[in-house]
Amino acid sequence: MVESGALKSRGYSLLEAIIASFLLVFTFFLVSRLFQTGLQYSTRVETRLTAVTVAESRMARIREWADQSITWTTIPSEPQEENYPGYQVAVRRQPLDVGALFSPCSATELGFPEPREMTNIARKVIVSVTPPQGPVYHLTGMVTLGEHSWWPGGRVEISGNIPASVGPSDVLELSAKAFDSRGEIKDIFFHWTVDPVFGLAGVGSVEPTMAEVRTTRRDGKTAEFRNRVPRRDGAPMPQDGYCTVAAYCRYQGVWRVGRTPALELRK
Q: Could you give the CA distance from residue 212 to residue 236 in angstroms, rounded to a whole number?
């Protein structure tokens, strides 16, 4: 009986050893899986942080480039950043969404059927970074080109069909642009007037209200000039004399004006 009890006790000890071994192996497997998962997650986080750093570095370069540029033709678009080999970079630029940037602001412009939008100096830039492994990361931002200055070479130019004289049925289609030494100043707005010319070749003058200039776009970049003034009954009445058509614009708080040559008005 004693020997039988000893064998029974030994049998329970072997079963316990098997269970304990199974639990030990299972625990080791679970810990290794957790360690591997944590290592993979840490690698993904590091990859993502590096991709974000690469995207921010490229966006900073683009903004620095834009401060010195007036066109979008040479935007930095190298496939890699120098300090991050293996991370592929792609740069896309898109026009801003409709209504994204107004002058002076959306609160005053949205009430007009043709709001003045600044569509040339600003772009939506998307920087896409592809790491060696993992998904593609995108960074989107609005980038504006650098400011112009009236000095040196600031001027306003008027172009169009500008004859020496304007009859009652003539329509002058005019356009205005502003320039500095770096080129055309984009997204600028113009106001048109008719100014008299006194004492030209011994001929009289035409008052500013004695002819009609009407903008054909709300930004004032194009206008139509006619030799007429409305009478009380609404009928157009041509004038005679001399005048110039002027386009005014304001940039950085400074006004500039461009004028046509003197126009002779014929009845």
A: 10
Other beta carbons within 10 angstroms of residue 232's beta carbon come to 6
Instruction: Give exposure, 30-54, as e/b (b: 16+ Cβ within 10 Å).
Output: eeeeeeeeeeeeeeeeebeebbeeb
Kindly state the tokens that stand for 176.
């205005």
242 touches 197 (CB < 8 A): yes
Report the SS3 class of residue 153: coil
Question: What's the gap between Cα 54 and its chain centre?
Answer: 22
| pLDDT at site 207 | 46
Query: At residue 1, does pLDDT exceed 50?
Result: no
Asked if the bond preceding 152 is cis, omega within 30° of 0, the reply is: yes
Is the confidence at residue 220, as pLDDT, over 60?
A: yes
pTM, two decimals, is: 0.69
**What is the SS3 assignment for 100?**
coil
